[in-house]
Amino acid sequence: MEDPFSGLAEPYLATGGTLRGVIRHTLVARQLGEHLPRLPAQIVDIGGGAGHQAIPLARKGYEVTILDPSRTMLREARRSIASEEESVRRRVCLIEDAGERAREVLGEESFDAVLCHGVLPYLDDPYPLIRILVSAARPGAVISVLAKNAAALAMRPALEERYKDALATLDADRDLGRLGTVPRGDTNSSLSRLFEMVGIETVQWYGVRVFTDHLGDRLPDATLPEIVQLEWEAGRRDPYRSVARMIHLIGRKPPH
Questions:
Q1: Residues 73-83 pLDDT 10s
Q2: What is the domain partition of the chain in residue ranges?
Q3: SS3 content of the chain, % helix, strand, coil (to 5)
Q4: Measured between alpha carbons, how far apart are the two ends of the chain, in Å?
Q5: How far apart are CA 10 and CA 128, in angstroms?
């Protein structure tokens, strides 16, 4: 069977080495690292794709399961894992299936952290998947969600001098993304309400790509460390984080 997500997977993988891609993965890893449990711990990355977060976590000693419906993305994950040390390879499990089927696929297994990054924009209603994330989490577990920021959709086209497009998105909840689709956006308040509805405490939220989202396919250069530090600081502060392209929300399941 052909990979139904190859049309998205291949262009997404092509952006991994761009400045925008590097900033995204670097910031999310750093932000997540502020909240993950101590080792030993088990993590499931729902929609974890090529392992941009999961493989570095396995290097740190976490046991990581990547659940993703895209054969193309998992093939890239296998290629990356093959180059790792044996101890790292043993700590990564790959499962090809949809996040909506996580409970059936994972059975009774539960995890110390549940990640779901960049999946919600492709769902008309994020609530059912949020419930599944919670069901896979142990008491006290961290839940990490990365979503498109509906409150800042006009920022990218405006900075690219596409003012008509920017005006059209001021009151929209979705726009044309780099991958040729029209993903839906969420807001910090709407995601926090969903967390509250399923009994999850919101611990922290971050913005991802405040200053670099409009730079297209520009590659990193010698200024990367300064850019990363600037984006890290801005992503934790108001008003900057409110105009970032993405929202990174960290929650915690009650311990009892």
A1: 999 999 999 99
A2: 6-149+181-252
A3: 40, 20, 35
A4: 43
A5: 27
In this structure, how many other beta carbons lie within 10 angstroms of the beta carbon of residue 171?
8
d(CA 159, CA 58): 37
Residue 66: CA atoms inside 13 Å, Cβ hemisphere, count?
Answer: 30
In this prediction, residue 8 carries a pLDDT of: 76
Domain 6-149+181-252: what homologous superfamily? Answer: Vaccinia Virus protein VP39 (3.40.50.150)
Q: Taking the CA of residue 22 as centre, how many other CA atoms within 13 Å lie in the half-sphere pointing to its CB?
A: 16
Specify which residues 44 forms β-bridges with.
65, 114
Question: How many angstroms separate the CA atoms of 111 and 147, rounded?
Answer: 21
pTM exceeds 0.85: yes
- Consecutive H or E run containing 139: strand 137-148
